[in-house]
Design brief:
By secondary structure, the protein is an alpha/beta fold. The protein has two domains: 34 residues; 143 residues, Double Stranded RNA Binding Domain. 38% of the residues lie in helices and 30% in strands. The chain contains three helices and six strands; from the N terminus they run αββαββββα. Strands 1, 2, 3, 4, 5 and 6 form a six-stranded mixed β-sheet that branches. α2 runs parallel beside α3. The longest helix has 28 residues.
Length: 183
């Protein structure tokens, strides 16, 4: 009798273990398509290092090309998918251009509708990633937009200068997201 009780309890515990494993299986299968690590586009699979030369500036804003190059280099470094290096050791070269810096009114005063209280700063960067061994081979290209906001104060030029790096950082993050993730 004792041995029959032992067999019955061991078969019940075996059944409970199998039931727990069966319930755990869908949880493990739900993440079957997830992949850890970077998810670079296939065209950029062999690119590990990128050179970022000075961006061109098609606007009248002084030193904007320095701010854009710095923002893109910083965004590439922070993302970690690619490493920054010089042109001689790079797998690809990221060339860019500041196409446009536009300001538009967001909010105006109720008493004076001509002079806005707050402005939006929109920066457009166009860029091309080329193979370092064959510069005619374009790996990726596109345009990235960054937007920031600024309050209008008596020194409007300083307010614009202070808002520009934020817009460039946002455009640089969009650029790097497109390179590193494909979207």
């Amino acid at each position: 009798m004792k041995s029959m009780v032992k067999i019955a309890t061991s078969s019940v515990s075996f059944f409970i273990v199998r039931l727990k494993l069966l319930l755990l299986l869908p949880l493990l299968a739900s993440c079957a398509g997830y992949r850890l690590g970077n998810a670079k586009p296939t065209t950029l699979a062999r690119v590990k290092t990128i050179a970022v030369p000075m961006f061109a500036n098609d606007t009248q804003h002084p030193k904007a090309e320095v701010l854009a190059t710095s923002a893109v280099s910083s965004a590439v470094s922070q993302d970690g998918t690619f490493r920054i290096t010089n042109s001689e050791h790079a797998d690809a070269i990221l060339s860019g251009r500041i196409e446009n810096i536009a300001y538009s009114a967001i909010r105006g005063s109720r008493l004076d509708t001509v002079h806005p209280d707050e402005l939006s700063n929109t920066v457009t960067l166009t860029w091309t990633l080329t193979d370092s061994t064959n510069p005619r081979h374009i790996l990726a290209s596109g345009a990235s937009i960054g937007i920031s906001q600024l309050f209008v104060d008596p020194d409007l030029q300083s307010a614009r200068n202070n808002a520009l790096p934020d817009a460039l950082e946002r455009a640089a993050e969009a650029l790097v997201s497109r390179l590193a993730n494909g979207f």
